[in-house]
Task: inverse folding
């Protein structure tokens, strides 16, 4: 068997893992973020100034925000359930140290601190959890697309063949979710009136890089006979094309229907698509082709998974637009966001109940078809992931109240309480120290060039696979390669950010 066929077999016929294991794995990123924030506050407490060295900031961010994720999906995957409690215990230890060592003059009773925390006002113009969520989806995707080719990456984390919930199955849907929550329709101010199809026209112009990337990937994969899993998207289709068509179709739907009713459109799309799958031969066609023997003759047969799964991904996108609109409602206090977290938790609980019902009576989760269960699962887990980041941010805000003057990049800015007579003035007066620190923050660096980071990860993945026999790699060698690969990607983003370069041509 050739190397190409070996690698294709290595990522084929898999069944995924449990929802619980995925949830436990997702908790690692928020815990790493919390750990980094607490370490920076502790540093300020000891030295009286924030960490300002770009070199040490990059090293700290990589070792705390990225490296644990690499270990968790390789060496530590057999004990993944023990990793979050260990990191949480470490964070609790740092918090305890901060609480006990804060300056004598700033010490107030704990009950008073909690009261002050509940009355704290946050910068309403910036929601760091959205930025961090989008960056971590990109980072986790970048790790997985290379790590999956190594034997140390558990096969249960890879994409399931037909039915199942693998980590990478969630990654695809999460990428759609992350794009939708900040789409132009969400960011557009409600009081700004624009022509109905202006966003659609803008999307036509903005998706051309994705079209180029899709065509580029197609040509490069075919020309060098790079291994590919045909049942993912088909013979010619790839995820870049999916992003293009979903964004265009969503902009068209949002131009026709009120954007604050996008959740209704999402439900109708997902349910109608599932009904068609269950009541017609469409499911058989997707899984086995028009002749029932997995034929790939003809454009539709060749790319049936990629083309027909668009309905499911479009439903995820529309639901995510509704989430984005809800998140951007003006909440400028800890109390407001605490209530929002409670509402989101209730929503997640309801979604998991619906998921159970959908899997029992409609169809199990299938990324290949992007069916109803898959749509519900993606939205539920993405909301869970987002909630974890909001809770992390609120915890860091509380800790910053213990150490006055401390700063954490990509965390909420505390602002002065809005005054009736100077409402607009005070709401726009956040403490800008965090803004300066964002120049040395890896999360801000990746956020500024997210598409480039994703493209670079894809290119580097291809290069590594061409140069290295990944399937037979030893553990130490695998960890070295993955760390070098991610550090190189992060270093490029860090350098571009330091020089204030944004590579965006549309």
Result:
């Amino acid at each position: 068997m050739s190397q190409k066929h070996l690698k294709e077999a290595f990522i084929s016929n898999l069944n995924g893992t449990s929802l619980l294991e995925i949830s436990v794995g997702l908790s690692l990123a928020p815990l790493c973020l919390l750990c980094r924030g607490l370490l920076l506050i502790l540093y300020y407490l000891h030295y009286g100034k924030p960490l300002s060295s770009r070199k040490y900031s990059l090293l700290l961010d990589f070792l705390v925000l990225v490296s644990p994720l690499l270990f968790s999906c390789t060496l530590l995957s057999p004990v993944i359930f023990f990793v979050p409690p260990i990191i949480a215990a470490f964070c609790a230890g740092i918090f305890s140290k901060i609480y006990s060592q804060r300056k004598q003059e700033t010490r107030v009773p704990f009950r008073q601190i909690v009261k002050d925390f509940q009355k704290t006002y946050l910068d309403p113009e910036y929601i760091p959890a959205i930025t961090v969520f989008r960056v971590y989806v990109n980072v986790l995707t970048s790790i997985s697309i290379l790590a999956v080719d190594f034997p140390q990456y558990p096969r249960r984390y890879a994409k399931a063949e037909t039915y199942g919930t693998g980590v990478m199955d969630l990654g695809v849907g999460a990428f759609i979710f992350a794009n939708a929550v900040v789409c132009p329709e969400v960011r557009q101010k409600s009081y700004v009136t624009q022509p109905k199809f202006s966003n659609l026209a803008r999307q036509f112009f903005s998706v051309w890089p994705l079209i180029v990337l899709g065509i580029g990937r197609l040509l490069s994969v075919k020309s060098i006979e790079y291994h590919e899993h045909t049942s993912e998207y088909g013979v010619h289709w790839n995820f870049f094309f999916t992003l293009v068509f979903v964004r265009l179709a969503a902009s068209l739907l949002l131009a026709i229907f009120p954007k604050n009713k996008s959740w209704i459109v999402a439900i109708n799309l997902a349910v109608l698509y599932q009904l068609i799958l269950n009541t017609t031969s469409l499911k058989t066609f997707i899984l086995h082709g028009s002749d029932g023997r997995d034929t790939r003759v003809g454009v539709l047969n060749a790319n049936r998974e990629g083309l027909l799964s668009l309905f499911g991904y479009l439903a995820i996108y529309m639901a995510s637009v509704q989430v984005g609109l809800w998140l951007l409602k003006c909440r400028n206090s800890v109390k407001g966001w605490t209530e929002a977290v409670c509402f989101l938790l209730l929503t997640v609980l309801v979604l998991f109940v619906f998921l159970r019902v959908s899997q029992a009576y409609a169809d199990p989760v299938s990324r290949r078809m992007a069916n109803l269960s898959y749509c519900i699962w993606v939205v539920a887990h993405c909301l869970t992931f987002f909630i974890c980041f909001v809770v992390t941010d609120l915890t860091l805000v509380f800790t910053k109240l213990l150490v006055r003057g401390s700063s954490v990049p990509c965390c909420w800015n505390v602002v002065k309480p809005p005054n009736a007579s100077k409402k607009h003035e005070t709401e726009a007066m956040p403490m800008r120290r965090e803004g300066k620190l964002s120049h040395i923050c890896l999360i801000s660096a990746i956020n500024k060039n997210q598409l480039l980071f994703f493209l670079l990860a894809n290119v580097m993945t291809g290069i590594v696979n061409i140069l290295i026999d990944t399937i037979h790699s030893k553990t130490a060698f695998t960890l070295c390669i993955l760390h070098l690969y991610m550090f190189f990607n992060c270093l490029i983003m860090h350098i571009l950010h330091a020089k204030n370069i944004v590579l965006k041509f549309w």
Q: What stands out?
A: Confidence is low (pLDDT under 50) at residues 420-435. Strands lie at 121-122, 414-415.
